[in-house]
Amino acid sequence: MMSYAIIGFGKIGQALAHAFARKNIEVAVASRRPAEALAPQAREIGPMVVATSLRDALEADTIILAVPFGEHRAVAKALPKWDGKTIIDAMNAFPVPEEFDGLPSSAFVAKSFNGAKFVKGFNHLVAATLAADPVVEGGHRVVFLSSDDEDAVAPVAALAKQLGFAPVKLGKLNEGGALVHARGRTWGQLFFQDLFKKEQ
């Protein structure tokens, strides 16, 4: 059984927790705050949402980063190596910091998570949309996924489907990823495309 965790319990983290709760998939949630501070909110979202310490949350196979952008470094330092783990980057860097050296933000973040499979995803939907049922008018809301590791995308696409979304693969971080990245003061082309795919 795959295990899942969401790091960051702001609007996006809570919205993702709602998506897991709706499908009765267990997910650990953690943030800089202690587990007991998150527990009442987690319980309110559903019994499958388990507030835990950051250390325990990082035991999960698949970890969704939903922290404010600059905080990914503190998370990355919590483990010396990330081998065998899949990191889903649901953060948005806006406005884009200078230190990226022209890299898309997720390629920059990926460097901090040594050994992990790294996928950009779930970042283009606003929290209210992410929290709402993804089945819309006979179709499914789209989640865009991009990664430099072809093998990493398949399990994340499977998770997106399990949560009721329609995964769309956009290729590598610097190709497809660019379509959903904030750049400078502008958003990527697909950023606010609130798309859904009809069932065939």
From TrEMBL:
Family annotation (InterPro entries): NAD(P)-bd_dom_sf (IPR036291), P5C_Rdtase_cat_N (IPR028939), STEAP_metalloreductase (IPR051267)
UniProt-listed GO biological process terms: copper ion import
One Gene Ontology MF term: cupric reductase (NADH) activity
CC terms in the record's Gene Ontology section: plasma membrane
Superkingdom field: Bacteria
Record keywords, A-Z: Oxidoreductase
Entry annotated with the keyword tRNA processing: no
The Pyrroline-5-carboxylate reductase catalytic N-terminal domain, residue ranges: 4-92
Family annotation (PANTHER family): DUDULIN-RELATED (PTHR14239), F420-DEPENDENT NADP REDUCTASE (PTHR14239:SF0)
Record protein name field: NADP oxidoreductase coenzyme
